[in-house]
Each structure stands twice: as structure tokens, then as C-alpha cells.
Amino acid sequence: MLDVTENAMEELKSTPLLREHEKLKALIAPFGGWNMPIQYEGIIAEHRWCREKAALFDICHMGEFRFRGDITASGLENVFTFSVKGIPVGRSRYGFLLNEQGGVIDDLIVFRLAEDEVMIVVNAATIDKDFAAIRSRLKPDANFLDISAATGKLDLQGPLSRDVLIKAFGGEIQTIPYFKFIRMNILGADAIVSRTGYTGELGYEIFLPAEKAVELWTLLLKDERVKPAGLGARDVLRLEMGYSLYGSDIDEETDPLEAGLSAFVNFDKEFTGKQALLQRQRDGVQRVKVAFQVNSRRSPRHHYEIVHDGTVTGSVTSGVFSPMLGCGIGLGFVKPEAAAVGTPLTIRHGNVSMEAAVVELPFYKGGSLRK
After folding, report:
1. Between β-strands 34-39 and 13-14, what pairing exists: parallel, antiparallel or unpaired?
2. What is the DSSP string of 147-160?
3. What are the residue ranges spanned by the domains of the chain?
4. ω before 159 within 30° of 0 (cis)?
5. Is pTM beyond 0.90 here?
6. Are 328 and 322 in contact (CB under 8 A)?
7. How many angstroms separate the CA atoms of 366 and 9, rounded?
8. Would the N or C end of the chain have less CB density within 10 A of its end CB?
9. 130: CB partners within 8 A, 6+ apart
10. 286-359 falls under which CATH superfamily?
């Protein structure tokens, strides 16, 4: 389940929508250094609404960077595990920013706005770290800015999200394929509408000036097909798809190979951490990420032990009760010999014990993602 206690003692930031969440009686809690809405009506209800209709998420806490210039000459092409110059204008790509040891500093998405302009979207808790890492790998005169504070981001997710946005902003929304975006005017401001998300459903991410976030939030919630959803529902939705959460399933001590994410690493290009990953390929990984399904309604939790053949083989990194499957599901790292699909496992913590088995991803296969 989503850990909302992290960074509770530090001074918390708030999105432009905090007062709106308070008006809706949302449960607000610390997450990644921010005051964030965890739930409104309830996690299960909000999860169901997203799977069946259209849920609106405040994601203004995420970070955005803008680069302008020559992608190759500036050094940007060699920063990530994928080719930036290979992204067509109007499309985006997911991948990683790695350290020298191949560990994941962050997972992120790069949007190709123009031949000489990109936007990089990063996780909220890693904004400063990411900016410093990227900046250090670019030439000193590179035009690279942190535009996080000036940028608002709302996600509308669910099978009815396209119809909602067409009604609000016109038929151009209909033309956006998966992992493509358009630039358009919304509420009198330049905005980006992207066919991306974190739920496994048809959905859109909308980037616009931060001062327009409340107006857009209010407009979309006027549609009876739309309800607000918090980070609790978002966590259940993403885990049903098997999507990794930075800080839980991947971090600087985890590399894409052991996390089962090598599909997002292009070994035909240079990037920081490449040599470490190549060495790990030669040596073999010592642990691998697996998805497992519990044979009851009990929820596995972060740090629970994973046992195979009576021996602890790893630990849980994410776990929830899945409303769509009616049982507990989770992700965790185990030794390679316990990673084959069908392998029986026991998830254990103190007196808590639950039987499980390794399964293929995604857990939930009925989403409208590519509708």
C-alpha cells in the first residue's frame, strides 16, 4: 500500500489545489514531501470509478524540466537509457536516469515538443536530485530549466475520459494515440494533452500553467461522469497493472535488469550506467522482481518477507488488496530460482502468513488503456 508517512517531519509543499481538496473533505497526508489527497469518498469507490467512468487526479506535485537546443551537442542524448533524438516530435518515451552503478536515480518520461525542445517529467520526491544529475551531464551553456513550480498537471483517467475531454475541449482529443500528445489552448493558456497515465485505463495527462489548475479542476468536476480520486486509488490502480513505484519497487540500489525493465534500456547507445549494466548482464543478477498473487483477500505489505521452500528468498516492495481480482497482489524481489511463473511462495510478517504464487503481469487485463 502507498506509504504516506514518508517525509512527515519536514516542511511540506502543497499543490495549487490544496484548498479544493479540503473543500471536498479529502484525507490529506504527506507524500514525497507534499501535502497530497489520499482519498475523498474512499479508495475502493474511487478505484472503481476510474475503472468504469472517469477519475480526476491532482498530479501537480510532479516535476517538469525544459530543454532547448541541440540534443546531441549538448550531451542530452547520452543522459537517459533511451534515445531522445529518436523520439518523433509529438511523442513521448519512458525510461531511466541511472547512476554510474546502473541504479535508478529516477524513472521518467521525455516529451519531444520540437526538434530542439523537450519536456522531462520526473517524480516529485526526486526533482532536485534529478535536475542536478541531468545538469551535471550537460554542457555548461545548455538551456535547461526547472519549470516544476510554474507547471500544473491534472490526470483524467478512465474509459469515459476521452468523451469528457471532447465535450470540454473539442474533437481534436479524439486524434491522440497512446503515448502521443498535442499542444492546444485550454482556458486561454497553452497546454499539453498527452495520452498517457498510470492506471491501465484510457486516460490523459494535462499540463498547463499552475495558475490555471484550479479552473481546470473545477470545470472537469462539473461533468457528472467525473469524480476526484486520491493517491490511494492511484496506487491500487497502478499495482493492478504491475507498474513500478519509485522509492518502493525501484530506487538507486535497483537496476533495470533485476527490476525486469530492460525493455526500456537501449544498449545501442551511450548512457551513464551502461557499463555497469553490461557487466551485470555478464555476471547475472542476484535477485529479480516478481509479481505474486495471494490466495486470499489479505494484503501483503512493504517489507514483508517472501519465503520459498522454507527459506526467506526476498521481500515485498508493494502490495494491496485488488478489487478487480478479489485477492491480495504484490511485487517484490526474490532470488532467481524463485522467480518462475507458478512458483509457490509464502508471504510472511510476524504471525501473519499468506500463501501466494508468482504470476505474469499485468494482474488485471481488462483495462481500456488502448481503447
Report:
1. parallel
2. -TTTEEEEEEESTT
3. 13-59+149-241, 63-145, 286-359
4. no
5. yes
6. yes
7. 40
8. C
9. 63, 65, 97, 105, 106, 108, 120, 122, 123
10. Aminomethyltransferase beta-barrel domains (2.40.30.110)
